[in-house]
Amino acid sequence: MDRRQLEYFLAIVQTGGFTSAGRRLRVAQPSLSQAIRALERDLGTPLFDRLGRGVGLTAAGEALVRPAKQVLRDFATARASVESVLGLTGGRLDIVALTTLAVDPLAALIGRFRAAHERVDVRVTDPELDNAVTGMVLEGDCELGLAESPGGVEGLDHLRLRDQEFFAVLPPGSAIDPAHPIEVAELAGWALVSTPEGTAMRTLVDRELGRCGAAPRVAVETTHRAAIVPLVLAGAGATVLPPRLAEDAAGRGAVVVPTTPRLVHGAVMMWRSGQLSPAARAFVELARLDETALPPAGTAGPTRSP
Questions:
Q1: Extents of the domains making up the chain
Q2: SUPFAM superfamilies this protein is in (predicted)?
Q3: What is the pLDDT of residues 74-111, one digit of tens each?
């Protein structure tokens, strides 16, 4: 078994077939098939069920996916560790983050990281559901993850980030005094624009309104997070957003109001226990220093529409 065979194996898993994997890897299909047959002989079992024009994983193939991802990441870490002797002169850092955390604090952290290590590329992935972040880090798809998550997940180390406050964001012209906080329970009386169940925004709203004995009325549900502010500006409903996004909405005419009690949720940066790549280690240390220097959440809110 070698690195090339595992790389070919994972490409077939990800693309669903030998032909598409060959195109992605720019490898002739006979060479790809030969490498997989050699891997199957070495392991003593088939890894794929041939299903017409596609393939499916056998039980053995399913069992190999996670270790294969980790082996390839270990290869990359080993290479990066050698290169780190001369400084972070290249490579890539993969991060998975909730959309709200990708805006703040991740965007600023990446900016500072890239200023110090301009030859390291950063890829940020947006999970389909918020609870997918932990799995993507555990499975080796991404080296770092940012999510609303408790610490102490087996197999993961973590750094707790500052709490993130959400603000009520109302359509332009709403008869609300932005200088006075809105009661969380009052949000139950608004038609809301929200992401689906299982996302951080929806979980926060459902949880906090539930504590008030109320249920949200989600009038517009969308997976297109970039559409939320335009929907609010168009009068489709109200929403809740973290400071950076709320500030942007206020600048475009929305009425932004703090809530009482404050809508706050925690956040962590997580990674697999054990050795980190030099790039990931540098990023974690940057975040650690950054969080000790930042003021607590809520000391400065977004600019509010008059």
A1: 3-82, 85-160+266-293, 163-264
A2: Periplasmic binding protein-like II, Winged helix' DNA-binding domain
A3: 777 777 666 654 456 677 899 999 888 998 889 999 99
What span, in angstroms and rounded, lies between the C-alpha atoms of 75 and 57? 24
Residues 170-221 have pLDDT tens digits of 999 998 888 899 999 999 999 999 998 888 788 888 988 888 888 889 999 9
For 212-240, letters b (16+ CB in 10 Å) and e give eeeebebebeeeebeebbebbeeebbbbb
- Angle, in degrees to the nearest 10, between helices 278-293 and 59-83: 80
Of residues 212, 174, 179, the one with CA closest to residue 190: 174
Tell whether the torsion through CA atoms of 215, 221, 227 and 231 is positive or negative: negative
Peptide linkage before 230 cis (omega within 30 of 0): no
Read off the pTM.
Answer: 0.66
**Considering the domain 3-82 in this protein, what is its CATH number?**
1.10.10.10
